[in-house]
Amino acid sequence: MKIFGVMGDPISHSLSPIMHNTWFRKYEMDHHYHAFQVSTNGVHDAMKGIKALSISGMNVTIPHKVSVIPYLDHIDDEAAMLGAVNTIIHRDGKLYGENTDGLGFLASLKTKYPNYERLRRVLIIGAGGASRAVGLTLSKHLSDVVDYANRTVEKAQSLAVETRQYGNSKGISILEAETQIHNYDMVINCTPMGMDSVNERLPIQLDGVTPDTVIVDIVYRPLKTSWLQHAEHQGCTIIGGLPMLIHQGALAFQDWLGFMPEVARVERLLQSQLGDSYVDE
Ligand code: ATR
Q1: CATH number of 103-239: 2.60.40.1120, 3.40.50.720, 3.30.300.30, 3.40.980.10?
Q2: Using CA atoms, how far apart are residues 134 and 243, in angstroms rounded to an integer?
Q3: Mean pLDDT over residues 1-28, rounded?
Q4: DSSP letter assigned to residue 261
Q5: Candidates 151, 188, 196, 221: which one to mutate for ligand 1, based on the most atoms within 8 Å of Cβ?
């Protein structure tokens, strides 16, 4: 039996324990996955604890994805590119850091939108850690243009400077994004706006969007945000945040245990957990 987990703050609403424990049962493994509440002050002890308690693998979520790095023996190329780690592998007494967020997004896109190769021009709303993971990965692996729009436009511009090592990129204002939206094949919300329906203001208005634009939200609670509902009314293909969550988890599972778990059944399970009838396929 091996112990895995996720550390973050807050962590009580994490879906990762249900996801990984479901896979363990499905593949008749007696491993266990636990959500660890770790405050910023607790990161040092938690990282020592992984070795002391022989925990086999750990996911890392907000706000610790950057602060765990000094405790790792090695980080892979993806984690180095993103400057953040979401998966730790404990093997032969050493801690290896990886990042499956961007590649998880890419895998979910391939599953949900088989025609994904046409998505050459992409606009990302937001300029935080999630925007960085999705934007750099798309620029490196798929798209010709990855632009960022953000409330604080300077942050969008500095992310664009980094992204230009892979392709075309610029930072723009929310207003510019709204007037230029017809120029993009895909628009992705990487801000928390719309989460838990608390903030009904949309990340950007969608009046100018055309039906051939794919609209993506990384928010998965609720499964279909107001923003996605607006996009659907405009005739756009929509993709919610749950597939990305599951694919980043599946890639972490593969890093730990050596094979890719199935995702379709877990997706249906988590959809029912989130209490919504929306199925985006
Ligand atoms: P994460 O690392 O998870 O991506 P983050 O670093 O807090 O989270 O980034 C959140 C992004 O959403 C930021 O770009 C933020 O805009 P600012 O850079 O201007 O702070 C954006 N964001 C968060 N709440 C927002 C709101 N209410 N309105 C507009 N943008 C918001």
Answers
A1: 3.40.50.720
A2: 14
A3: 97
A4: P
A5: 151
